[in-house]
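Throughout our pipeline, every protein is held as a single compact record rather than as scattered files. Nothing more is needed to write down the fold, since each code stands for a local backbone conformation. For reference, a complete record is included directly beneath this paragraph.
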Amino acid sequence: MIILPAIDIKDKTCVRLVKGDYATAHQVAESPYDTAASFRAAGASWIHMVDLDGAKDGRPVNEEIFERVARESGLKVEVGGGIRSMETIERFLEKGISRVILGSVAVKDPSLVKEAVREFGEKIAVGIDAKNGMVATEGWLKKSDVTYLDLAQAMEEAGVRTIIYTDISRDGTLTGVNTEQLGKLNERVSCRIIASGGVSSIKDITDCKKLDLYGCICGKAVYTGALDLCEAVEKAGEQSC
């Protein structure tokens, strides 16, 4: 299993939200570049980055930050937030981003997802973010009438190989991952599942590994010191500290 430490960008700073509420945004690190370097030093091979401004505006806002991290950190970078066109996807991939995450468009424009997967294959992931099992869009500000399981199945049929699942009610709360929903998701589809939201301790890492998930995203727990990133990488089986 891979561990993906997270950096969320708002107003060009590294922040974390609680339950996706933009009003709770607080700075957690000075520099995204130094933070990425520290993740690499701890043994991470991937980094998960989100353009919070882009998610709200429906267009990328902080591209230069993601591109510089991809260029300088030595990490594989996956990016989501406000990516709504083939042109944007292509531009990110050309600038060294390893995987592009499509979120709201999976609900609003599934044909774009199909086109992107045809063109770029496994470099495309879909982010499914849900409240009480129902998918939320537009930076989690709008709730849809689609269940996370139904959307996952539709994305699998569209050719998507990687799904990032976030239980919004747990994101940024340090209350543990939603193993029940993750287990159901992993049973429903054959896609590679990355868990996101609620990671609080090394137990969450071992729980996700027991579910045979592809990856686990760690945010607030790393910044608060509740989770040692090096230990998480080791427990996931990536490498020894």
Notes: The first helix runs from residue 32 to 41. The chain has a mean pLDDT of 94. The chain has eleven helices and twelve strands. The first strand starts at residue 2 and ends at 10.
